[in-house]
Amino acid sequence: MSRKSKSFSQLYDYLMRDESFCFSKNTYSNPRNKKDLIHEFMNNSDFLKTSRGRNYLYHELLSLEQNNLSLEKQKEILLDLVNKYLETRAKNHLSFAVLHTDKNHIHIHLMISANEIEGDKRIRLSKKEFSIIQKDLENYKNQMYKCLNKSSYYQKAKDLTKEKNSEQELKNRRNKTSKKDEVKRDLEELLKKATSKTYINNHLKNNGYEIYTRGENIGVIYENKKYRLKTLGLDKLYTSKLKELEKIKDREIRREKQKQDKSYSKENARAR
To answer: CA angle at residue 136 from 130 to 137, to 5 degrees?
Structure first.
């Protein structure tokens, strides 16, 4: 689990709620000295660029399945597995580990810095990288500790390559322009270019569109499907464009009438 705030102190208190065995890696402080240890984690996080919503630490957990081994033997095995895990998962990160035996099974909580020692970048493992670490650790446990039941949980992990391909296909579908978007774009370009109502009607007809009205609603039919201008967000543009074209038409009619009046006046003057 990742945390998007510098809640090192809060997590430390949660992990150390009971008197427990603990240790840390890549730190100078005694892990039981909360003030000094948290100071180290905080100072290391200051090297990161401030960014809202980005991780500062990870809270992870490792455990053993139920078994008949003594508590001491379980501790020995689990501590070895944790060290092996940290060597691969967070070799150059600050880490703090606490062992708990308060549940039915023994487990260890980990607090891991998001960045390496004095690193200015957050290190985030991909699903594939994390899966490989889990699988390798499980193989190590099966080989080294025959006293535990052999497990194959992480060996059955789903094919992440297929998952990645599926995610890409979904992304492509989302980015693909829909027919509705194509109709909207075409009509929007038409209305912006139109110089007359005749131009609009001819363009629509030549490109397979048909205007329809139903009550106060206006829309187009394209490939046997109706698209309301209001739904497309073009109703106001269409109305304003028609008003603009009407004004242009009226202005041209007035000019033509003025020309005719002037021409008529000149003819009358000549006749006199």
So the answer is: 90
User: What was the pLDDT predicted at 195?
Assistant: 79
pLDDT tens-digit readout, 126-178: 888 999 999 999 999 999 999 999 888 887 655 555 555 655 665 565 555 67
User: What is the model's pLDDT at position 79?
Assistant: 95
Q: Are 95 and 112 in contact (CB under 8 A)?
A: yes
Burial-class residue 269 by CB neighbours within 10 Å (0-12, 13-18, 19+).
Answer: exposed
Under a CB-based contact definition with an 8 Å cutoff, are residues 100 and 108 in contact?
yes
Residue 260 contacts by C-beta under 8 Å, 6 or more apart in sequence? Answer: none
For residue 116, give the amino acid letter: E
Domains belonging to the chain, first-starting first, are 2-124 (3.30.930.30), 179-271 (no CATH)
Quote the CA–CA distance of 245 and 251 in Å, as a whole number. Answer: 10
**């190590």: which residue's tokens?**
140
Question: How many Å apart are CA 270 and CA 228, to the nearest integer?
Answer: 58
Cα 145–149–150 angle (5° rounding)? Answer: 80
Contact 2, 60 (CB under 8 A): no
DSSP H helices, the chain, are: 8-15, 34-45, 71-89, 127-144, 160-175, 179-193, 197-206, 229-232, 235-271
Q: Scanning the structure block, which residue is given the tokens 């062992």?
A: 99
Tokens representing 4? 């998007």
Per-residue pLDDT tens over the stretch 187-235: 888 888 787 888 888 888 888 888 888 887 888 898 888 889 888 888 8
